[in-house]
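WARN no homologs supplied; continuing
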Amino acid sequence: MMYRLLIADDEALEREGLELIVKRAMPDMFDIAHAENGRMAIQRADEMRPDIVFMDIKMPGIQGLEAVKEIKSRHPQAKFVLVTAYDNFAYAKEAISLGAKEYLLKPAKRDQIVDILSRLVEEIAGERRKREEELRLSERAMEFIPLAEKEIALSLMLDPLHDHHLEPLFGLLDLQVICGCACIISLPVKEDGVIDIPAAMGSEQLYEAVRSRAKTAVSYAVIGPVVGRWIALFLVNSDEGKPFFTFRTESLQWGKELSSFVTDQLAIRATLGLGTVRSGIDGLRGSFREALYAAASEGAGPLQLFDRLSEEAEGAAEGMELTVLPRGDDTDRQLDELQEERGRRAKSVLDRALEYIRMHYREDISLEQAADHAGLNPYYLSKLFKLQTGKTFIDHIIRLRMDKAKELLMDEQYSLKEICYQVGYNDPNYFSRAFKKATGVAPSQYRQQNELSARADQA
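OK structure emitted
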């Protein structure tokens, strides 16, 4: 990996001598540029964006410390080594205040220069690795966010009593649910039961288009998948300082804009139902039922507001609670499809994780590695694992290892030590304890029991 080094000194011999030391001691490691004064140093820094700058403090025109200030303001990633012929405490103090990494007295010794450069290179390499890891995690997070949002939406629609697993999911999205409201996009359906959307647009393209548009909201929008004829969206307010009325006004404007987008730009004759603003996670569920009621209502215009319908309808007081969702054949079918979609989604990502574990259970694998392979957050995979299999991640690996150990114990050509290593353990004693804990007998006893059983069968 090449690093960019800028040497700023008004004495050509100093610059050339420093370059010679660097090239001999650390060949092919630096792309080196020179500057003979402070102004040129600033210009060269803009051209090359240096990783490291050796700056002479005393130069004609713009002084070294002034140049450092200017370069640092433009290129904060640069590491500075200040060089001077004067052992001046005031210079050293100001250099430190500017964030200089080192302070060298002329004439600097070769070993000093190499030592400083080696330490700075190591520091820069570490920072690059950290940035790359942050970028990788950021990209992974961007992949995970739609999955988390879909799980949140499906849970809000289908799980009336379980908030304990939703709070961590909202937390992963950095959301605290102060209040929020739900929106249902009810898509038109053809006579054959297929949703009536433009031929060139599939369900996934529709989801991406709606998600992209909904994300322009002032508050955070959680977007559910396209299931049957529905798309559920939840607008969440995490700002404790925002007045309830202000959020309601924003949500109405958001609903109008989303309705216009679906109708005019996507050319879909959909109806949008908007629930009232309610507090907390359970309030989002109530708002979903209201939005569903509004979307199913026959009314003028593509946007139906539950609170407006309630005001207009006789017996509005009972309608506002909606503790029981109006049911019909179509609603039942849609809810069944939601359940199936949720199951399919969970199964596909879990299958990827299970396949990874099956291929690597002999290795020292972690929940984080399996989650990364499946494209999930580790917390979400852990929760999904327990929900779908009834076991923890570690319990599943242990079961796979023990099943394989039992199979190998049936074959006398393998010693207990060989079996231990083949199923992923490094310590035969630990393997024996783990096997006994899982089966109730030690590996040697298990082998003996099977030998006796085999002889009895032959007799």
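The chain has three domains: 3-108, 143-326, 396-458.
OK
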